[in-house]
Amino acid sequence: MKKKTFIQKRSMRSQSMYHMMMLPGMIFVLIFSYVPMFGIIMAFQDYVPAKGILGSEFVGLKHFKYMFSLPDIWQILTNTVVIAVGKIILGTVMAIAFAILLNEIRVRFFKKTVQTIVYLPHFLSWVVLAAVVINMVNLDGPVNHIIQMLGFDKVNFLGSNTWFRPMIIVTDVWKEFGYNSIVYLAAITAIDPGLHEAAAIDGANWWKRVWHITLPGMLPIILLMAAMSLTSILSAGFDQIYNLYSPMVYQTGDVLDTYVYRMGLISRQYSFSTAVGLLRSAVGMVLMLAANGLAKKFTDRKIF
Predict the structure, then answer these.
(1) Is residue 38 situated within a structural domain?
(2) pLDDT digits (tens, 9 = 90+) for 105-144
(3) Which residues touch 124 (CB under 8 Å, ≥6 apart)?
(4) DSSP alpha helices (H): ranges in 30-70?
């Protein structure tokens, strides 16, 4: 018994250095992630800044009832889900396709050059990229010049409720698909090359080898990444939409994050915006737990 206790104490002393290294990060998370959660109380109050959280009147579920009575909230939820799902589906397909094609490149210098060019947009802020997108798709931009050359009328991408959602989805995929392909490229390199060689000897062409060997070999990672993407289903990308949208496209471009920003910081409806944010967080938590269960069921791996 004494020997066991001595070993446990020695083990704790040997790991104390790692615990100390983790301490600053844990303090940072505590201060900026957990302490602010105290503000959730505002969702159940008529919050008045002058009275503070402790002095404001408690109103229960008043703001939640008001939220669900608004016709706009359902349109905003629809916008959020449509944009987020579109980004997840198209982004996943593009990342997988790019990873498969990139893996076929045998010239090392050319492969590295392509990777660098495609990965670069991921590291740029939407504050910068929004200016690029606006200059590209505005009425006098190169995209509309090409459309006119093809014999069609100009398209107001940033002011059209028809085109705004597709533009948001496509530009986000353009920014992220290269970086997201890293995981799928790693999954491809883990597939036994002997399987491709055997299939080629049996007469399978490139497409059949991809369909019957590459994609099945990537399937566990694809399912895991898809399950993890469920957690972001109510996060359609605040920074991108905020830098590109305008009141003209609120009907199809306003999402939960931008709505909370406008209600909370611009209209100063602090309690109502907190209620909307709390609903989004609660649904996100449910989706995260569901994603964890799906990941365990289909890939035998848990997210956490």
Answers:
(1) yes
(2) 888 888 888 888 888 888 888 989 999 999 998 888 888 8
(3) 175
(4) 52-55, 62-69
